[in-house]
Design a protein that fits this description.
129 residues; alpha+beta; four-stranded antiparallel sheet; two-stranded antiparallel sheet; 6 strands; 23% strand
């Protein structure tokens, strides 16, 4: 404690460095993003608006979706998607941008003939396609 009394001025720079680092680690653990993607998410946090199906969607359940699963298993696991492309029904969106926001948490399941061929889970930015 005596150390802090003599060097109290070191606490502020330490907090300025540690707070963003802790927030990036929290985002990385919560959403499963890499550190670079988590940093981008943190930088654009005020511009991020994502719509999920309230009371149904869960990150933990979405993480259980793997290629090869049947569409009905996905439906039982995470429920009805917010958007589906018809009549092909090959892209199920479980998140969409709110108010046409360019930054959002993208959650998409790609299907072919009723089977999952891919899962997209990323922080969407205007530059990403």
């Amino acid at each position: 404690m005596n150390f802090l009394k003599k060097r109290w001025y070191l606490i502020v720079p330490l907090l300025l460095i540690c707070t963003p680092l802790i927030m990036v680690l929290y985002i990385s653990m919560s959403y499963g993003y890499g550190l670079s993607e988590s940093w981008t998410c943190l930088q654009n946090m005020s511009k991020t608006e994502t719509k999920f199906r309230v009371g149904v969607y869960s990150e933990g359940r979405f993480d259980k979706i793997v290629p090869g699963m049947m569409g009905r298993d996905v439906f039982e696991l995470v429920g009805m998607p917010l958007e589906r492309n018809t009549p092909e029904d090959t892209r199920w969106a479980y998140s969409v941008p709110l108010h046409a926001s360019p930054y959002f948490h993208e959650r998409i399941v790609l299907l072919e003939r009723g089977k999952v061929t891919g899962v997209i889970k990323r922080f969407h930015m205007p530059e990403s396609k």
